[in-house]
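Weekly sync, protein design subgroup
Attendees: M.S., D.O., the rotation student, P.L. (late)

Item 1: inverse folding check
M.S. brought a backbone from last month's batch and wanted to see whether the design step gives back something sensible before we order anything. D.O. pointed out we never logged the input encoding, so this time it goes straight into the notes. Structure tokens as presented (301 positions):
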């Protein structure tokens, strides 16, 4: 009788036990698979790190933040504030259209330079190198876009050491020529060719001690292009902090006027080139609170 009961119980519970074991095994495999997938993603990012960023920095993690064009008044207003100066932040200002600047604005640039910020070069008329070179050639681009603006800046006492391509639209044939004159040439990460940087991944952290890396890719922080993406920007800074890297970021105008776009015609390039005061301050404070260093672009050499 007991044997019959035992056989009957086994017949009932054995399939249940088998299913439980199989489910546990399946869940274990899924969990292991997810863990392996995460490891593969981390390994892939590490591979990008190794290929495009070099080894860890012995100078410490940091942020290299730059601002483009000619919005001198907004930059000066923001970076001379007491609450910003206490962060000891140093950034790079890339000047385009220098012929538009007043003597008062040149004086403001000198004040910013005296505070430790870098004055870089961004072109005479903000011409896109790739298009201009295709139509007119490299020599014409250098004569029309590089030389005139550099003369103006030098006449006002500036010696730009780094250059940022307008729009990030670089021309490989111009890179070599520019790197003979400038210590660093900055492009943009979302336009970088696949073979030179992980395109469209916005992977914009580099190692501070990779001396050979003179082409630098930066991630754009402008509000219209990255609305609601401040968390992503801060995640890049956080990654740089953890991996002892330098997060390379760039923007344009800085304003606290939320009606700014309503006062600028949409054809004006400034319409899509804006950062709010609180967003820039958030980036600076985020890095400062983590003990990160602020680098000018020239210091990436």
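Designed sequence read out in the meeting:
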């Amino acid at each position: 009788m007991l044997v019959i009961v035992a056989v009957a119980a086994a017949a009932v519970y054995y399939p249940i036990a088998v299913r439980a074991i199989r489910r546990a095994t399946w869940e274990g495999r899924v969990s292991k698979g997810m863990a392996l997938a995460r490891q593969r993603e981390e390994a892939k990012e590490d591979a990008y790190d190794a290929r495009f960023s070099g080894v860890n920095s012995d100078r410490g993690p940091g942020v290299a933040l730059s601002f483009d064009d000619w919005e001198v008044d907004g930059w000066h207003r923001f970076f001379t504030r007491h609450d910003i100066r206490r962060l000891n932040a140093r950034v790079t200002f890339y000047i385009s259209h220098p012929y538009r600047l007043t003597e008062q604005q040149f004086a403001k640039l000198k004040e910013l330079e005296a505070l430790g910020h870098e004055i870089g070069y961004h072109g005479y008329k903000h011409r896109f190198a790739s298009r201009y070179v295709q139509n007119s050639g490299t020599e014409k681009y250098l004569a029309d876009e590089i030389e005139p603006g550099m003369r103006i800046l030098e006449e006002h006492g500036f010696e730009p050491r780094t250059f940022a391509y307008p729009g990030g639209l670089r021309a490989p044939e111009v890179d070599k020529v520019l790197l003979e004159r400038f210590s660093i040439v900055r492009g943009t990460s979302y336009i970088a060719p696949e073979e030179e940087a992980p395109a469209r991944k916005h992977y914009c952290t580099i190692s501070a001690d990779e001396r050979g890396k003179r082409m630098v890719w930066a991630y754009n922080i402008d509000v219209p292009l990255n609305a609601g993406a401040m968390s992503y920007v801060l995640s890049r800074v956080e990654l740089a902090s953890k991996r002892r890297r330098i997060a390379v970021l760039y923007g344009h105008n800085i304003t606290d006027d939320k009606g700014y776009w309503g006062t600028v015609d949409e054809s004006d390039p400034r319409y899509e080139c804006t950062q709010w005061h609180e967003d820039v301050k958030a980036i600076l404070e985020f890095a400062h609170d983590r003990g990160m260093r602020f680098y000018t672009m020239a210091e990436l050499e």
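Discussion: Residues 48-56, 191-212 have pLDDT under 50 and may be disordered. Residues 2-53 form the longest helix (52 residues).
Action: P.L. to compare against the previous round before Friday.
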